[in-house]
Amino acid sequence: MRMRMPMSVVTAAGLSLTALGFGTAPATAAPAPLDTGSLASIAAYDGSSEEAAANRAFFEAVLKSAAEKRAANPSSAAAVTVVYNASRAPSFATQIARSTQIWNSSVSNVRLQAGTSGADFSYYEGNDSRGSYASTDGHGRGYIFLDYRQNQIYDSTRVTAHETGHVLGLPDHYSGPCSELMSGGGPGPSCTNAYPNSAERSRVNQLWANGFAAALDQAEKALEKSGR
After folding, report:
1. pTM
2. Does residue 163 have an active-site annotation?
């Protein structure tokens, strides 16, 4: 059974966005936990066209951030490294590490790496009646917020891996089976699969080969223009 919650997208000059089918993102650089009185209203995954656009914006922000760093400091590594900061989500350290392991073993063109400086996105934790979500300002700075209650109802590693799938460019597909990671909460709380299927793995590799090449080209041209 899928629970539902109100959804909205907050759009400001800095393009603060909500994403990933969990809730509404505040227009701040870090989440502000809300009271726990309305935990019963927490939904699992709830799709909308606004949410899909926000998912895409978050992915593009991370892609741009990674490309700018690669352009400034060229590397011979084939895979693109995306750095995340998990220091503010200590309760989910195991799930985040497991999600990272799953994605790094599933795809070859992008690699997730923990770090506390120069991160492309961050994880936060807390109580929020809107559930879990991700937010970006459109300039390569963003975060994933993991809600305590929601991660008690649904398999926490699946939730974390699903959220991270959006960072890597995958959209929601709630009507999909449990074997599809981006079906999110569609199959219900009994679904514990935290692995992307073959189509999802292929799509991420494709995005980080073609999409990153374009982002890197733009970043390099910007550096040349600035006289580097």
Report:
1. 0.77
2. yes
